[in-house]
Protein: Efflux RND transporter periplasmic adaptor subunit
Organism: Microbulbifer hydrolyticus
Amino acid sequence: MQFRIFPRVAACLTCVSLVCASSFVQAQSQGQNHNRGQGETAPAKLNALSRVQISSELAARIIDVRVRAGDRFSEGDLLARFDCTELKAELEGAASQRALARRQLDANISLRQLGGNISELEMVQSEAQLAEATANAKVLTHRHSQCSVFAPFDGYVISRTVEPHQRAEVGAPLFELVDNRGLEVEAIIPSGWLAKLSLGDQFQVTINETGHEYSATLQRIVPVVDPVTRTVRVIGKIEHEADSAPVSILLISGMSGEARFRLRDNTADLLADGSDKKTSRGAN
């Protein structure tokens, strides 16, 4: 059995096919544009600007520890104190030696002015003794100032490795401290993105622990490509105290999430520039 398709029906079917194909292409194009608008994502984490380990500068017994892991502190707060009884006695002795050397030099100067028999060598020796006593007193004064450990900035205690009555040696770790006020976001991106990003670009960061999105500015690009993964580390400043999210939600070092970058389409930018130039010439 043979079927005949009338010309009008064939024309209608052809139109329907063309419309469907056009709709598919348009939808695909819109999807691609939508994805470009959403940006490309990369893993990210938060790093503190200041994270330090405080070590002992004295070999002495610890008599007081004021903070524990997780405690918050302010700049200048007392963190720990050493037993500096012996060092204090040494400092007092050095001060006495300096005073004695000062008096000896003054006496020699006065005697020489009165015509006494004071040789140049004796004058030089008394001056040297005073200088030595002064230097020794300064050294002991500096060491005595280290009997108390004060916080260098506002922040939190990450860890504490000493207890009261424990003896610490020079260089022994006491505390690890972190300042979460200034945070940087570090993202690992494909090296192929470098041509489509510039310092100063804005990007978005979603933090897993808070569930919020934050704005950030690209500040630095580490100029080394990982030879295995072909990735690059980029670092930006995250803004978390203004418009991005409630201030009550604390961001801390080590939180992780996802950074979303809007990559420049160099071809599209060139076409846009050309179109703008043509429009400008047409207006003239």
Summary: The CA atoms of residues 74 and 154 lie 4 Å apart. Residues 85-144 form one domain. The chain has four helices and twelve strands. The helical segments are 7-38, 85-113, 120-145, 266-283.
